[in-house]
Amino acid sequence: MIKFTSDELKVVKKIEVLKNEAGSHSPSFFTFKQKLPEVDIKVDACFLSNPYATDLFIEYFNKEILHTGNIRDLLESYPSQNGVIAEILADFLKIDSGNIFIGNGAIEIIQAVIHNFTKRKIIITIPTFSSYYEYVKDGVEVVYYNLSKNNNYNLDVEEYIAFVKQNKPDTIVLINPNNPNGGYTKAADVQRIIEELSFVDNIIIDESFIHFAYESESYQLVSLSHLVKEHPNVIVLKSMSKDFGIAGVRAGYGVMRKEYVDLLLKNGYLWNSNGFAEYFFRLYTRADFALRYDKVRVKYIVETLEFIQELRQLPNIKVYPSMANFVLIELLEGIKSTEFVAKLLISYGIYVRTCDDKIGLKGQFIRLASRSKDENDYVIQSIKACIQMNDVLKLVNETVV
Ligand SMILES: *Cc1c(COP(=O)(O)O)cnc(C)c1O
């Protein structure tokens, strides 16, 4: 139980309205700033991006685009066509350009793939990123595969394979690491899934958080996009928003069989990128940027590990295992997620996502992103204070009764 003043309660109501208006996604930072001027947001722990990568992008952007006046070209000219940007990525990714489809954010590719290639039945593991089931067209059957709370919402590979064989869908979706819990399935296990389920027409693997995951002590990146060549039913999706900290640019790509890319391009998507996204994609493939990006990637992974470690020390919450840059937290001892989130926002200016709208989660959950080291320290202190407040109030209540 968390206590609010009457002024605070008014803000709590407003937050609820904003959340309802945003549907299954969180209201943006801008919406909050505009509609809740009385709340001073200090830390956006809702958005799942690497802040150091954003800093790096801004550094390059200022030097090469703003300060040189090249911004004019970016605004005045058309960007390159989809296939041309695919060619820029091809060498870097070591994948044929014909297999690469560029999206205005990965969400556009999710929509394109599900609308065009899912004909009959899709299996979606829950909890998940909501677009996967929201974009399913009428007439397509959606079957949910529940990640088990007892297994900390990690994927049970054998059970999953059996489930898919039994249900015979034409499309399955694996987000790795998964959103909203950060659970990671090792590359060897995903490969096993792919080999066992060769009858499935579309195996979508969403690697939007893959730059935060690792399987060795050197934190080396483990992507499976090269498997598309051998397994034409595999579709690997990649958002650049989170690990490169550039959600506002809208950049993502998909690796899929050539017929799919051709089919999509036949129906549109010619100039679906913008000049900023093209600049980003060109930067992404440059050796100087790649080298520096990898440094901020590893720095952020290490700090996130420390952050998660500290969260685990706090009482009355359960921190689920994560290989992403966020954690799913279950609130115990009667703490309500809506109240907890409102308190963090109103009293500490920390914006966190409740997960009470996520299907497949049973209990009071929030999802908390790792930010810069200073911000993470502040978040830990604030959460500690909220938990203590809950304890004190509980004690007072019990004594009164
Ligand atoms: C954020 C997210 C996306 C969409 O990313 P954009 O590139 O910003 O459209 C896709 N998949 C998952 C799992 C995500 O979390």
Automatic annotation (TrEMBL):
Domain Aminotransferase class I/classII large: 78-383
GO molecular-function term, one example from the UniProt record: histidinol-phosphate transaminase activity
E.C. designation(s): 2.6.1.9
Keywords per UniProt: Aminotransferase, Transferase
UniProt entry tagged with the keyword Membrane: no
Top-level taxonomic group: Bacteria
Entry annotated with the keyword Transferase: yes
InterPro entries the UniProt entry points to: Aminotransferase_I/II_large, PyrdxlP-dep_Trfase, PyrdxlP-dep_Trfase_major, PyrdxlP-dep_Trfase_small
Protein name (Swiss-Prot/TrEMBL): Histidinol-phosphate transaminase
Protein species of origin: Pedobacter panaciterrae
